[in-house]
Input
Amino acid sequence: MPQRVKALLAPPVPRRNGAMAAFAVLVAACCTSLALTAHDTERLFEAAMHAHAAGAGLHAR
Output
């Protein structure tokens, strides 16, 4: 119990701003990567749909 009281009365531990900044940069990079991948995937699906539609038009004749 006395150790806990000493810990509570001691000055706060300094923050690690470098670690917080690195974490924020990592999260931002992950979000950006996810958004770019989603956009590229959407473009690939649209291209595949157009290619399929063009191929279906050739077979119908």
